[in-house]
Amino acid sequence: MTLHDNLARAAALKLPSHAVIDGALVAAKSGKTFANTTPRDGSVLNQVAECGPEDVDAAVKAARAAFEDGRWRLKTPREKKKIMFRLAELMERDLEELALLETLDMGKPIRDTRSIDIPTSINSIRWYAEALDKVYGEVATTPAERLSFVVREPLGVVGAIVPWNFPLHMACWKVAPALAAGNSIVLKPAEQSPLTALKLGELALEAGVPPGVLNVVPGFGESAGQALARHMDVDLIAFTGSGEVGRKLMVYSGESNLKRVALELGGKSPQIVFADAENLDEAADAAAWGIFFNQGEVCNAASRLLVEASIKDAFIEKVRARAGQYMPGDPLDPGSVAGALVTEGQMKRVLGYVEKAKAEGGTLVAGGSRVRAESGGFYVEPTVFANIKNTDTLAREEVFGPVLGVIAFKDEDEAVRIANDTVYGLASGMWTGNISRAHRVARKLRSGLVWINGWDACDITVPFGGAKQSGFGRDRSLHALEKYTELKGISVTYRA
Question: Is 264 a catalytic residue?
Fold first, then answer.
């Protein structure tokens, strides 16, 4: 399809605008709406229901009623699986619409939403549908007159608060395992990107997910998000987002009903390139992709590039040459490999980090400026800084934009020390041709994910989550089901 084709299809879309509560598409009880803008050109896409505490309470009550009467929880595994597979089929049917909605809402390239974001979201639904009857309980070792066993039961009402950078993908990472485990859900999408979550709620009803089982409440974090996190009848908050909000959620849990909290809070991930790497061109490709994909708006973005001093200059030149491949274009143009940052505020924040890096002595070797300003959208060119110290702001704080800091190291021990010298611990990676070094360093790196000779080289079968201030709890894999379930021990005494 051409840009013209995509513009025509986007103009013809019916944009979701209502909350999904107890099986109905509803306006906010207050009647309020908020303007949903597109970062593509800064224009208003539509007005979306601005849910507040009253709407959240209605959604939680609907979810609790659905859980207690068992309309989803007590369905057989075969019945749940059939409905979840139907949901995946409907998402596949509407893939083009979902991709356009995601591109308009987020400013990310249509080529990525069509080939990555929406297909991986569909895969999450299918994978957990297939997995839901593959999780078994345990039988304990007991005396002859007693049988003790352990079962996993759904928690109850799950509040899922998801970020704006991968709106549908992150929603499905939480909705799919929560549904598979038998829970009811109240999903609160980011106010910057509500459209695909609202569409997901509509498709779930069409697929046969019973009313009240999946509710979607668009709105702002300080109102809808806080109300959900403080609600006395929510059993778990599953959150992906900033550390600042994650800390608030912990407080809200303590101040309410001590609900469980699962947090994935981003990172400052190091990608280490040793001089003995077998293919430095491949490593340079990964270094560029690791920070410039999705405009750098990725929680596990490889924003710190650690390069062995003996190859530093030559390797930086390789990365600089590749940065130009990620120059932003119109997100609806199928030829664009990068798009816009999510909001004007985020763009200004990213450019502020660029100026801070200059002031602290970093050497700008590529990018550093806003581009496509005439479009009205929020675009920043791929940016590379050399001569960054790990004490610099650019190396300490999460930028969430297409800005790379290159740090030199002299040997393996220093590489590990620099890599671990961060409050975060989401992901890390290395490039080396030495198998012993690969295993040795992987064990020393303090992060939830370690990639060797690749970046983000895993899929839904591998748990995703971090250490330290990158949070706790895991998305993806069978391990994700653990946080949506409660262990129950049952003992039966009988006459031997």
Answer: yes
The candidate with the shortest Cα–Cα distance to 3, out of 118, 93, 109, 102, is 109
Quick one: pLDDT at residue 267?
A: 97
What is the rounded distance in angstroms from the CA atom of residue 378 to the CA atom of residue 106? Answer: 11
Token pair 């250490």 is at which residue? 467
Q: Bridge-partner residues for 134, per DSSP? A: none
Closest CA to 95 of 114, 112, 76: 114
- The Cα–Cα gap between 377 and 371 comes to 9
189 in helix, strand or coil?
A: coil
Q: How many CB atoms within 10 Å of residue 431?
A: 28
- Count CA atoms within 13 Å of residue 321 on its CB side: 9
Asked if 458 is an active-site residue, the reply is no
CB 95 within 8 A of CB 122: yes
Catalytic, out of 50, 102, 191, 264: 264
Radius of gyration from C-alpha coordinates of the chain:
23
* Local structure of 150: helix, strand or coil: strand
The kind and range of the H/E element at 415 are: helix 412-420
Rounded Cα distance, 337 and 108, in Å: 9
Query: In the Cβ-directed half-sphere of 299, how many Cα atoms lie within 13 Å?
Result: 28
pTM above 0.85, yes or no: yes
d(CA 190, CA 203): 19
Residue of 50, 172, 299, 398 marked catalytic: 299
Concatenated DSSP letters of 226-267 = HHHHH-TT--EEEEES-HHHHHHHHHHHHHTT--EEEEE---
Residue numbers of the chain with a pLDDT score lower than 50? none
What pLDDT, on a 0 to 100 scale, did the predictor assign at position 391? 98
Q: Which domains does the chain possess?
A: 3-264+472-488 (3.40.605.10), 270-457 (3.40.309.10)
Q: CA 454 to CA 462: how far, in whole Å? A: 15
